[in-house]
Amino acid sequence: AAGVIQSPRHLIKEKRETATLKCYPIPRHDTVYWYQQGPGQDPQFLISFYEKMQSDKGSIPDRFSAQQFSDYHSELNMSSLELGDSALYFCASSLGTEVRGTEAFFGQGTRLTVV
Amino acid sequence: GIQVEQSPPDLILQEGANSTLRCNFSDSVNNLQWFHQNPWGQLINLFYIPSGTKQNGRLSATTVATERYSLLYISSSQTTDSGVYFCAGNGNSWDYKLSFGAGTTVTVRA
Asked: What is the pLDDT of chain A when averaged over all its residues?
């Protein structure tokens, strides 16, 4: 079965540079989530999109922005990178319903290292 | 989002042993999932279990929604079961984002 695809898998950037992470959800899934997981931490919610509109926002720095495109893929743009942005970034997708969320599936993550 | 508490934080098992991991929620959940994060960082779906009981091989899970907790059972543990186990849930309708617990780190020794 198709899974959530993230690219790149690994990324090394220097401080103050910009990075773009991409996420391709499971076909027919209309909801995308972004999470950040620091070393030894649990995944922290950043932002989500439902039907190409931002649906919720968590602890996402102002230096980060994201969007969901017409084909439902999503991109997380990160500017003025700091050492503390080094983390594993996950994208997840699910099928939104009016009653409740459905099972979310996670991509393999992008490991970002800022040097 | 809801608050999620997991216990115990760490668990060391001898191969073949059974164990129970617990997850408590601060509020009612519409969605509850258990994940296993392997040493490569991949989050693997174990169960989608807003209520009731499910079994998958040596793993099973039970969620008692009215009492706001879920349990994950590992039977006859194997070294490949090592890793971090997370539970995560979301609350009200349209609050789709999953809030994660801090995880239980399981180490299974041969």
From this structure: 93
